Amino acid sequence: MLSPTELDATATVFIGLAWVFFVAGGFICVLNFKLFLDWVVYRMKKLPEESYKYISPIPILGSLFVALTLGTLASIQATKIIGAVLIAMDMGGIHWMVLGICYQMLRSAYRRIRK
């Protein structure tokens, strides 16, 4: 994480690139969250799960871009807060994938025990 004085000494091009990647990652995070909400609404309508065709083509990149750029932009308090919110809501992020895998493992273990 760069301190405010180091951030001022960094070339403007690199700071600009960090902002571009932060905004692009934020857009991907919001897109993944929107696709998740669309899926929830789709399932609430009791439509078959197999016919749902909208999935994120770039699931991990949003959280990755935001997390990596926070190393440069974290001296700005607002980017830390916005970045944490974006990473938490990114349903395509690695943290949600790990939780999904754990959930499926527990679910299958419960089904085996229940038989």
Tell me what the structure shows.
The structure is a single chain. The chain has helices at residues 4-9, 12-44, 61-73, 77-89, 94-114. The chain has 115 residues and is mainly α. It has one domain (4-114). The longest helix is centred in the N-terminal third of the chain and has 33 residues, at 12-44. The chain is elongated, with a radius of gyration of 18 Å. The mean pLDDT is 87.
Could you name the key traits of this structure?
5 helices; 115 residues; Amino acid permease/ SLC12A domain-containing protein; transmembrane helix; mainly alpha; membrane; transmembrane; elongated
* Approximate strand percentage: under 5%
Q: Count the helices. How many?
A: 5
Content-based structural category: mainly alpha
Q: Which term fits the overall shape?
A: elongated
Span from first to last CA? 52 Å
| Helicity level | over 70%
SSE diagram, text form:
Blueprint (H helix, E strand, L loop, with lengths): L3 H6 L2 H33 L16 H13 L3 H13 L4 H21 L1
